[in-house]
Amino acid sequence: LAHGAGGKATQTLIEAIFLERFRNPLLERLEDGAEFAVDRSRLALTTDSFVVSPLFFPGGDIGDLAVNGTVNDLAVSGATPLYLSAGFIIEEGFPVADLKRIVESMAAAARSAGVQVVTGDTKVVQKGKADGCYINTTGVGVVETEHRLGIDTARPGDSVLVSGPIGDHGVTVMLARGELDIDADLTSDTAAVSGLTAELLRSVPGVRAMRDATRGGVATILNEVATAAEAAVVVDEDRLPVRTEVRGASELLGIDPLYVACEGRIVVIVDGEQTDAALSALRAHPLGADADVIGRVGEDPPGLVLLNTAFGGTRIVDLLVGDPLPRIC
Amino acid sequence: MDERVRRRARVDGIVQGVGFRPFVHSLATRFGLSGHVGNDVHGVFLEVEGEPAAVECFLDSLTEKSPPLAVIESMAVEELSAQGGDSFEIVVSDAAGTRETLVPADSATCADCLHEMSDPADRRFGYPFINCTNCGPRFTIVRDIPYDRPLTTMAAFAMCARCESEYHDPADRRFHAQPVCCPNCGPRLRLRDADGLPLAGDPLTGVVAALGRGEVAAIKGLGGYHLAVDATHQDATATLRKRKHREDKPFAIMVADVDRARSLCVVDETEQALLTSPRRPIVLLRTRPDTALAAAVAPGNHELGVMLPYTPLHQLLLRRFGAPIVLTSGNVSDEPIAYSDDDALARLSGIADVFLSHDRAIHLRTDDSVVRAFRGRERLVRRSRGYVPQPVTLAWDFPRQVLACGAELKNTFCVTKQHHAVVSHHIGDLENHETLTAFTDGIEHFRRLFEVDPRIVAHDLHPEYLSTKYALDRDGVELVGVQHHHAHIAACLADSAESGPVIGVAFDGLGYGTDGTLWGGEFLLADLVDFRRLAHLEPVPMPGASTAIRQPWRMAVAHLLSAYGQHPQEDLDLLRRNEQQWPTVAEMATRGINAPLTSSAGRLFDAAAAILGMRNTVTFEGQAAIELEQAADRDEPASYPVAVTGGAEPLRVQGADLIRAVTEDLRAGATPAVISARFHNGVADMISEVCTSLREATGVSTVALSGGVFQNVLLLERATARLEARGFRVLLHARVPANDGGISLGQAVIAGARDRIAR
Ligand SMILES: [Fe+3]
Ligand SMILES: [Mg+2]
Ligand SMILES: [Zn+2]
Ligand SMILES: [Zn+2]
Q1: Does domain A31-143 have CATH number 3.30.1330.10?
Q2: A10-44 pLDDT per residue, tens
């Protein structure tokens, strides 16, 4: 098994191994969560496992990541997150103080997201069998919105927005490993976006889809949209919100912020006519204060994401198959 | 009646649309022979009858005196019994059956047409679209085959009575010349301003005036739009660079004739022949010092790309303008050249002040080809207009048709049929939508043009190449993954009409290896089917991955670390210049943070150039290495030694030895010119040392040199000489580029060779 950066390699793996054997109509949609009816309620269910090194980094730790990640998956599917489960896999000898700190930040994150951790599990594995601590969370939410959300509903003329600067989390974590002597005033963007998405859905009927740009970054989300909608997604390089510190560190590290993970940023596809309304709704919320329109959905070329570069060219923003390797001969 | 004999002949190759039938007609008439000649889907068929001696002479002259654009691949002759008759006729074409004939390449205006164009009494006097069976547009205007006027973009022009009669007269030079036309019935020039509004007056006069004012003109040529400025005008050339977002990469120029070329550059006999050949490529020539050319044409370069006019329009323009003009592809930065009028107007409106256009559509975009002379032979650097679609002919047939998708940069693709491998025009770097579209549309066009439906699709192993992804998206085909450097060597073999085994030295920027790391300094035991990696340069990290390619100083840091271990060389200028960043970059290299390993030879050249302080960052591929080559003192005989370690396969060649030698010489006060020369000599020595040791192990004494690094003429010269001195036979590229433009040919022949042994 190759180490997945969240690109095409992972997608192929999922389809070949899991979908093949678990096949059912809910899973087949390959969304971040599943939505189903129980009596008169529509419920959403999602799960996520969290592995991060280091466990603690500026702006957060694995604990709030584990809560926010699952809350956000529910939120972008249009659900109101309600309850979480938490499963811990802990390496033998892991400091209890660290565990306390992680759980406290989970509790704080749950409080601010308005969810409760209602069940859980703990396993301790031998030293060397886990990298400190892994967390799995599963979340249940209730769907009350009338929106029919889905990236396959995106159509030419729609606008593409992001809720804030991109790449903060991934770059922060990379620098927090302490291997590199880079001074950057950066914190992770980890946050629960459920308040933001609820506000957006309440005031903008033309929202077609929302995604949280985690592993694989905004580039991966945009590719998913282009593929699902069989449309082109065109973004403008000079409209991409990237903090100066993130840009600087990315240049030094040789990475592209478009592919870097965020943990509290969403990509929104909205009916072009309601672009301004969506922008105002996002900006009205503290987590969306720096939201911006980054591009639009077009007809041609279907299935591709294009970046209009700062000097007037276009570049294909491709879904990465694995770890990015240079292509230049 | 005297004894008469009759012969039937079949002629295959490029024999249609090149004046072959009128040539046969006039030849037969001259020898007093009867019979007929005609085209069919296989080529040309003919029968002649007459006195035995006359028939023999006729058959000899057929191959020896064939028209300039004809390429005879084979001629089969059989004896028939005499039938009598006293006339020789051209019979009508038969369009049925499969299409096996080859579409000709575009060709520069011939001497006869130029003569007519300059003759005030001729009806095509000064006509910018004059052509005949011996010259003019071909490949770029063909929509489909058979190659007949209705299937070209000339279909839009109905011939006038006089053109029509020339077209149908077997004795005329324009007999069946598909693009035949004249001022009454053919395409016309027009001049527009930057907004696309028509400008009054004579278009040619208008554009000459604009160039004279130092403006940028977009000019529609044979394969696309060029951007032109007065090449002696400082401001105009600088403006063009700025508007085109092209920082340093040299511009090509067009001059009126060889004498003008000679006033700017050194031109030897081979180079003169290349400049004036009907293919009219850009020829890379050594510049003379202190010419009238503006500095921004080719900043800091000792070489200049020069071409002569290849269309009547360019002829007229250069005659009127006098001074050399920059003629660079009509695009922004690295996008493909614009070729449709609307597209040109839309994409070039921020760059060009005027548009010189015409109403003959270009069906297929082709860039200018680039060549250089080496050891008295033509070597392709970029193979496109004038050369495509002439196939590479192999000594064997492909069992099944192959599509080879090529590499990512300098992409070409290749389709095969029978014993032909047709390498496409230069597509470009597959990183933007326009280029990707040119790639996919180009493949569809070739499918029709050569009537192929390949069931075998060959591709590179790099998972992120868009050409690889295209291949993997094909349904119902057999996929053949070909390692990048094996493809380089196979391309060199096919280019040389050989099949191996050879010791293949593949030195380039990088390509995906079978072990998932990036290769690029490879010694392969290879034939057309398979390869073994016998030796390679010791891998070093590329801190920042692609960024390390754009910033050669990072490769210097990585190579210094590998040469000196953990101790940074703080006294080096290189590190002082990059004070802020180098500790981090060194950490990335040491800890392997976004620092993939590569055995690339290109990156070794980058590192050496950066240590010598030539360049921290590059704006185009190979820039640092080119500058390193140009700096070298060619009279310096000394050389840096390189160790080869490990008895086990693959041997590891210590590039670090070169880096240490460069660094120590620099510290000792040696000049960059001397260091660069010793470095080049060291690499050449290393190549011949390693090949010698591999010859002992394998018994193979032929070496093939391929990969972009061998565009470095100094290295090529030195390596070839050393290998030959040691008794090696050395295969070099000629007809296809050593760079990634040749990859598709290599992939195609490997897929074909594997298919052959599988049957
Ligand atoms: Fe290569
Ligand atoms: Mg999830
Ligand atoms: Zn002619
Ligand atoms: Zn006419």
Answers
A1: yes
A2: 777 788 888 889 999 888 877 778 999 998 899 99
